[in-house]
Amino acid sequence: MIELRPVEPADLDKFFEYQQDPEANQMAGFRAKNPADRGVFDHYWQSLLNAPSVTVRTVTADGEVVGNVVVYRSEGVPELNYWTAKSHWGRGVTSAAVEQLLREFTERPIRARVVKDNVGSIKVLEKAGFRRIGEVQDFANARAAIVTEEILELA
């Protein structure tokens, strides 16, 4: 069973652990310059959790913390971001979490950005009704290269 709940302090330890996975960072493309820096991680998460305009939820699968979903404002438009532990990829966890968050967060349009070769993440968003509206190029720390990101929107 996939559930969303408010973030609890102990969840941050799991989020930090998941952030250490090199393959997951490569797939996501975007991460902190040094994902092992707990101080930077804690500062980032405290800013998210303290921002009144940000919606943050912990994702659990059968009671186990397996990721998070976040909606924040980027250039005035809500933007969806998520992270799922690699051990739970391909199990429908991310799709279920995104669908649940979209029922809770009903403002539209909402956007998401995904590295173009992250096919799994693009499928999750398209399944939820997002459509491609453009692309941008940006520097991805995890890849130490410029990557193309798809911009998707749910109207």
TrEMBL record:
Residues 2-153 form the N-acetyltransferase domain. It comes from the Bacteria. It holds the Pfam family Acetyltransf_3. InterPro entries: Acyl_CoA_acyltransferase (IPR016181), GNAT_dom (IPR000182). This is GNAT family N-acetyltransferase.
